[in-house]
Amino acid sequence: MPLTPPDPAWLLRRRQVIGGYVRGARMWNNLTQEALRDLSGVPRETIQKIENAGTDAKLSWLLAIAHALHLELDDLLAGRYRQ
Question: pLDDT tens, 40-51?
C-alpha cells in the first residue's frame, strides 16, 4: 500500500491557526477541555488534537464546538470570539 504524502506546509499552518482559535475561545469562556467536551459532545482527546493541530477537524466537530461556545462557525474560524 503506498504511503500518503505529508500534508503541505500551508495546511499545517492553517490547522495551527484554527487550533489556536479553538483554544483561545475555550479559554476566553473559562472552560477546560473537559467542560467543552461536556458542552459540545466532542471527545476531550479530539479537542486536544484540534487545539494542537494534530488532526484534520471534521466539520461536525467544529460546528459542535462553535455551538457550545455560543459562536457562529465563521466567527470561531476567524478568531472572533471576544464578545
Answer: 999 999 999 999
Note whether 82 and 28 are within 8 A (CB): yes
- β strands within the chain, DSSP E: none
| Neighbouring residues of 47: CB distance < 8 A, sequence distance ≥ 6 | 22, 26, 33, 36, 37, 40, 65
19: CB partners within 8 A, 6+ apart: 50, 51, 52, 53
Q: What share of the chain is helix, strand, coil (3-state, %, to 5)?
A: 60, 0, 40
pTM of the model: 0.91
**Distance from C-alpha of 66 to C-alpha of 27, rounded to nearest angstrom:** 13
pLDDT one-digit tens code per residue, 2-25: 788 888 999 999 999 999 999 999
